[in-house]
Known about the structure:
Layout: E1 2-4, H1 10-19, E2 32-39, E3 42-52, E4 55-63, H2 72-86, E5 91-96, H3 100-105, E6 109-111, H4 125-129, E7 135-140, H5 141-145
Parallel strand pairs: 4-5
Antiparallel strand pairs: 1-2, 2-3, 3-4, 5-7, 6-7
Amino acid sequence: MIQRVTAAEMPQIRRVLEWAELPLDGLDDERVTLFIIQRNGRLQAVVGYEDYAPYTLIRSLAVSLECRRQGHGRRLLHFVLGEVARQGFDEAYGLTTSIPLWLGRLGFCEIARGDVPVALLASAEFQGACPDSAGVFRIARAQLASHA
């Protein structure tokens, strides 16, 4: 079951993100909405988005080691993309060093950093939390709608 994160889950989320070597910077920002898959009180996967309307930044996609290759990451990302579409965002962006091909299969296209909307550049990820080597990916409203 996918659920929105509460404060009680944050310590587990931080551990999973640290293990996955993903940034914690900005995680507590009010713009961030996180969702998880949890079973028997154990975090299986997490993903979120940051609100920079009309754009959003997908962030913190991680699956715990024992739950990998079970489709949790894909299921969560589809859910969040649907949520982003329902919230009316025009485009979603993501930064990654590890899953560019996977994002491409979901409808994201790689773009140059210079093509990122200025509003997103204020995020912790673009301010240095993610390495400059991370690829930047965008998915437009039409593709977002296919996830709703």
